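The protein record now logged underneath.
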Amino acid sequence: MEQITLSVPDPIVESLPADGEDAARDMREAVDGWERRLNRAIEDAESDDDAAGAVVDVLERFEERWEQYDDFVAELRAWGQSPIYAMAWRDLMASLLRQLYDHEDLSERIDRERHARMVSDGIRPGR
């Protein structure tokens, strides 16, 4: 499996307030770290199936974080606070999910691994 590259999309950085340079830097550092961990997991994997499993683990973590940030948006609004940073991080998680699915042949491997996990968990599609 080839190396994975991830990035923080410019529109997300541009959506931050004028004083959001620290958040933009934090996002870039986080994405660089996730990219390194993903590529290390792929390199250490004994097979492409194992590598796909590592990618799906990360995808599931991004999905959990997306849900958490989405919950923060509603909570911050309820408290009369600006949700702009929570929205930016939520959008970053969605972008990273898309980037992983858009990466070469990874989409097919991700889908195969997710289906295998559903079956191994005892959930049968169509029942």
Observations:
- The CA atoms of residues 76 and 83 lie 6 Å apart.
- The longest helix spans residues 48-78.
- The mean pLDDT is 89.
- The chain is about 75% helix and 0% strand.
